[in-house]
Amino acid sequence: MVGSESNPARVAIIGSGPSGFYAAQYLQKQKDIAVEIDMFERLPTPFGLVRGGVAPDHQKIKSVTKVYDRIASQESFRFFGNVEFGTVVTHADLQAYYHAIIFAVGAQSDRRLNIPGEDLLGSYPATEFVGWYNAHPDFRDLEFDLDVENVAVIGVGNVAVDVVRILTRTVNELKQTDIADYALDALAESAVKNVYVFGRRGPVQAKFTPTELKELGEMEDVDVILTPDQLKLDEFSQTELDEAADRNVLRNFEHMQRFADQGKRGRGRRIIFRFLTSPVEILGEDRVEAIKVVRNELYQAEDGRIRPRHTEETEVIPVGLVFRSVGYNGLPLPDVPFYERWGIIPNDRGRVLTDMEGEQRTGDYVVGWIKRGPSGVIGTNKPDSEETAQLLVEDILAGKHLQPSHPGEIVSMLKERAIPYLTYEDWLVLDQIEQERGEAEGRPRVKFSRVPDMLAAIAERKGAPVGD
Asked: Which residues fall within 8 angstroms of residue 394, CB to CB, at 6 or more apart?
């Protein structure tokens, strides 16, 4: 019987971010079924957005990786880094080695604004800037012209606020983080003075968390500019604030009122919030020179929701850089169903479907943002992953699983194909090296940002090539 000690259920997890680790944790805790877990990651490094997305000045958030270390230390868990799904290993490959496959690949692209000038030089998705300053290999070689005074950040979620903080922190503050060394050098020469933050709805509807917002007012050399007219609420927003069940809405507004009350303090840089404002065009000939925005008003749509709509009031603001942070989209995987409209893998509570109204695909499961869309924080992924993993266990026990011809023998295949995969022990070696490099500079770590350099550093420390 699959799931017994002599014939454990073999589960492959594609992706090593929080949702993948939480799914593994749930499976490890099961008493009625034996599970062996193999986690695959296309990069040599695990942890997904915890490493490549969480801002470098938020080290406390990154400490969640200690939990993932404990999950990875279990005998029933193996990590295969530097192994990309769809190229190095295919869906058909995995079907030959596993009873079930969990896709935990997140949402890897940005939503577009769909306005003229969006593709001008100097207009970027926020994820590219985030990946760049976090030493993500995919974005390491990008260049951002920071020799500009004015920057526009479109969006009022936590990622937008991360971008704003990194643009406006002092070099002294950034030196205490694990920001990429090349990004630190570039930001040290930055000419940025004013960062405009545009939100299409009002301050009550902003999506950042109070902690992120409050932090803006605690930086060394920044004024947060929120004029009283920005906090003047329409009837819909006032009702939403008065009836808010979520305390975060009230706390956000309290922080904004505090910023408005304190006004300008003569700091070197300014963060200027502009609510009820949408970009309608990015202006420039060869590169970004300005952004045209329109004033919005809120109204109640037929479905009862409060939505923004344009007025006739427009304004042109000179800016040299634009960062778009209006949401993420998932990307399709080879041989895996995909629902383009929502940017997710179609599923029923985590069981992959052939399409949104289709049948269950035996053996395929999904967790995280690629399951539900880009919403929530790191902790939100835990109940989401547990829901999926519980259904996987039910299906295994009911005999609804893949029928692998070589269960558990993936290592032989990788070696036959000469794939230089990393084990979790290899990652721990790299982790130690990065921390040692950081200690020499009084920083948490100095990251490697190129895959060949990572593999070479591990091989040198171990005295053996990666994959041996």
From this structure: none
